[in-house]
Amino acid sequence: MNNIETRLTEAREELAGVEEFPDPEFVGIIKELGFRCELCARCCTKEFNDHVFLLDADLAVIRQINPDSVTPAPYPEFCDQKGRFYVSGYALKTKPDGSCIFLENKRCKIYDRRPSICRVYPYMLHREADDSGKVDWRQISGLNEHGSYYSELEDSECGAIAQETRAYEEAYLRQIVGFFEAVKAHFQKNGLKHVQSVYDRKIRDFLKGKCELEVFVYYNGEFEKCNLKPGT
C-alpha cells in the first residue's frame, strides 16, 4: 500500500505544480521555441512516441468513431497477488508497422476529432529527467527531432497553446490521481496488495505467449475489466 500512497502523493504534488506554473513563463518558452509542424507524421509512430494515452473525454469520442481502436494503456501501474493488473486508462491501438491505427498516407483520418494529447503535442508541462538525469520542468517533447523551430508566433497563438496544454496536463493528472485513489480503496476493501514479483512473472509469461492478462482499466471513476491476449 505504501507504493500506492507514495505515487498518489507524487501525483497530487505534480498537479499542484502544474496549476502553479506561471502562464507568462510558459508562453515565453513557447514563443522562444517557435515550433511549427511540418506534417512529417513522425509523432504518430512508435519510432517517436510509445503510445497515445486517452483521457476519459477522449475515450468517449474514440469509442463513437471505432470502439475496436482502443486497448488498455501499456505498462500497468499495479498487479495484485492474484495476478490482476490495474492501469490508469486506455490508449489507441497501433498497426503492425507501429503507426497509429488512424494514420493513413501520413495523415490523420480523425484529425478534427483527434485525442487531446495529439492536439497539444509536442508541448507538455511536467517534471521529467533529461539525458543527464536532471529532473526539471519540460515544455516540449522530441526537441529537434521533428518540425521546425524559431518561427514567428503571435502572442495570442502562444497563449492559446499554453492554455490548451495546461488544460490537458491538469486533466491527465486528475485522472491519474483518481486512479490511484480508486486502486487504494479497491485494495483496502478487498484485502489486496501490489506484488512486484507477480507483476514481473505474469508479464514475462504474457510476452512469451503463455497466458492472457486480466486488466482492470480505470475509466470515469470505475474499473472496466479487459482480457488481453498475447500478441495484441
Plain-language structure description:
The chain has 232 residues and is of the alpha+beta class. It has one domain. It contains six helices and eleven strands. A hairpin with a 5-residue loop joins strand 8 and strand 9 (135-140). The radius of gyration is 19 Å and the shape is globular.
Question: Which terms would index this structure?
Answer:
single chain, 232 residues, alpha+beta, four-stranded mixed beta sheet, 40% helix, 19% strand, Fe-S-cluster oxidoreductase, Puta_zinc/iron-chelating_dom
What's the tally of helices?
6
Number of strands: 11
In N-to-C order, the SSE pattern is HHEHEEEEEEHEEHHEE
Task: Specify Rg, calculated over alpha carbons.
Answer: 19 Å
For the record, the count of structural domains works out to 1
What does the main sheet amount to? 4 strands, mixed
What is the terminal-to-terminal distance?
30 Å
The chain-level mean pLDDT equals 93
Q: Shape from CA axes? A: globular
Structural class: alpha+beta
Pfam families: CxxCxxCC
Protein name: Fe-S-cluster oxidoreductase
Organism: Methanosarcina barkeri MS
Sequence-ordered SSE layout with sheet pairings:
Layout lengths: L1 H19 L2 H11 L19 E2 L1 H10 L4 E3 L5 E2 L4 E4 L2 E3 L10 E2 L2 E2 L7 H5 L2 E7 L5 E6 L14 H36 L5 H12 L5 E7 L2 E7 L4
Parallel strand pairs: 4-10
Antiparallel strand pairs: 1-5, 2-5, 3-4, 6-7, 8-9, 10-11
Protein name: Fe-S-cluster oxidoreductase
Pfam families: CxxCxxCC
InterPro entries: Puta_zinc/iron-chelating_dom (IPR005358)
